[in-house]
């Protein structure tokens, strides 16, 4: 039985489950099944919402979940506005 992505306990757990799911799909050469997971309504782990959600799949208080060539990874939210740093122009230092 596969671990349910929707039952993830926190953002790291969600990231790991999504990466595991992707690996399984690649191994089976059948990526259609990932569509069973509704990626547009993944669980989130903070009431502090992200306003610009394009390319942002989930978040917790300080980080966002993104996907790319390295699979699913976490990035820090902007320390000023809380948005993804690729959606704002604040200095992160
Ligand atoms: Zn910002």
Structure, explained:
The chain is α+β, with helices and mostly antiparallel strands. It has one domain (8-87). It is built from one helix and three strands. The chain has one helix at residues 11-27, and strands spanning 58-59, 63-68, 71-76. The protein has a three-stranded antiparallel sheet with strand order 1-2-3, covered by helices on one side. A hairpin with a 3-residue loop joins strand 1 (58-59) and strand 2 (63-68). The radius of gyration is 14 Å and the shape is globular. 17% of the residues are buried. The mean pLDDT is 88. The structure holds zinc ion.
Q: Tell me the number of structural domains.
A: 1
Question: Helix count, per DSSP?
Answer: 1
Shape: globular
Ions, cofactors and other ligands present here are: zinc ion
What's the quaternary structure here?
single chain
Residue windows where pLDDT falls under 50 for at least 5 positions = none
> What average pLDDT do the residues reach?
88
SS-derived structural category: alpha+beta
- Radius of gyration computed on alpha carbons: 14 Å
Strand order of the largest sheet: 1-2-3
Termini separation: 44 Å
Question: Sheet bearing the most strands, described?
Answer: 3 strands, antiparallel
